[in-house]
Amino acid sequence: MSEQYPTSDITSDDKLWAALGYIFSPIIPIIMLLIEDKKVRPFIKYHSIQSIAAFIIIFILTAITVGCGSVLVLIMLYFAYKAYQGEYFEIPLLTKFMKGQGWI
After folding, report:
1. Which residues constitute the domain of residue 58?
2. What is the b/e burial string over 47-77, where b = at least 16 CB atoms within 10 angstroms of the residue's CB?
3. N or C: at which end does the chain have fewer Cβ atoms within 10 angstroms?
4. What's the confidence (pLDDT) of residue 49?
5. CA dist., res. 63 & res. 41, Å (int)
């Protein structure tokens, strides 16, 4: 990862919300972006926006390739695990695109 993100101010609450965002996407991430004290937390905002975008891509891929839906759900669970570990991770192409747009 080329950019360094602040990891010292990540709380266990931030990790939990970020992980839940991937598991219950897009409902929980939208709620997190609407709650004032959650959307100002950089870790939560990063993972909320990334999980919404990942959900959209996975939804489209699942609609196109019906048989791969369960594999794509496992990928979201893996993303949730990484977020719960307190990591800022990049989804290839998707994260770079969102950074280029200024969303994260």
Report:
1. 12-98
2. bbbbbbbbbeebeeebeeeeeeeeebeeebe
3. N
4. 92
5. 33
